[in-house]
C-alpha cells in the first residue's frame, strides 16, 4: 500500500502515534466533530491513540493530511470516502485537493465506485463532493455521536466512469 500521496500543496501519509495529540486537538473541537458520523465529543488523546492504532493495524485506508509539516486533517476510504479538517484550515481548498488525490488512488486500485455522504446542514462538504462529481443516491437519519442529535444524512456515489469523464 502507498504510504503517502503528494499533491500540489499537501502530503497525505499514514498516521503515526506522534500525530495523536494534533488529531485529538483538531477533532476535539465540536465545530469539527459535529459533522462526523464516528467521532465522539469530547474527543481526547486516548481516542486519538486508539484511532491511530486501528489504522496501523490495517483498519481502512486512512491518511493524515499535512500542509507542510502541520497536520491539518484526515481522510480515508475505509468503507466510503470520509474526511475532516481542523477548523482553522477550512476554506483553503484542502478538502477538495485531498479528496481528489484519494479518489484517484481509489479508482487506480480497480474499484468501480466510491460512496460518501454528508449531513444536510454541512454545505461545505456538499460542495466538495458535488465538485468531485458525486451524485445523490438516498437519504437517511443518522445520529451524530458528538452531539447525540439525529440529522438527515445525504448518501452519494461516484463511479469510475463518472470520475474519468471529469478528467
Structure description:
The chain is of the alpha+beta class and 167 residues long. It has six helices and eight strands, in the order E-E-H-H-H-E-E-E-H-E-H-E-E-H. The protein has helices at 20-27, 30-33, 45-56, 94-108, 123-132, 160-166; strands at residues 4-6, 10-13, 62-67, 70-77, 81-85, 113-119, 135-143, 150-159. The strands form two sheets. A five-stranded antiparallel beta sheet has the order 1-2-3-4-5, with helices on both faces. A three-stranded antiparallel beta sheet has the order 6-8-7. Strand 4 and strand 5 (81-85) form a beta hairpin. The protein is globular, with a radius of gyration of 15 Å. The mean pLDDT is 94.
How would you concisely characterize the structure shown here?
The protein has helices spanning 20-27, 30-33, 45-56, 94-108, 123-132, 160-166, and strands at 4-6, 10-13, 62-67, 70-77, 81-85, 113-119, 135-143, 150-159. With 167 residues, the chain is α+β, with helices and mostly antiparallel strands.
List the helices and strands and how they pair.
Elements: E1 4-6, E2 10-13, H1 20-27, H2 30-33, H3 45-56, E3 62-67, E4 70-77, E5 81-85, H4 94-108, E6 113-119, H5 123-132, E7 135-143, E8 150-159, H6 160-166
Antiparallel strand pairs: 1-2, 2-3, 3-4, 4-5, 6-8, 7-8
Q: Quick check: average pLDDT?
A: 94
Q: Beta-strand percentage?
A: 25-35%
Query: What percent of residues adopt helix (DSSP H or I)?
Result: 25-40%
Q: What distance separates the N and C termini? A: 24 Å
Structural class: alpha+beta
In the predicted model, the low-confidence regions spanning at least 5 consecutive residues are none
Q: Which series of helices and strands comes N to C?
A: EEHHHEEEHEHEEH
- From the spread of the alpha carbons, the general shape counts as globular
Instruction: Give the C-alpha Rg.
Output: 15 Å
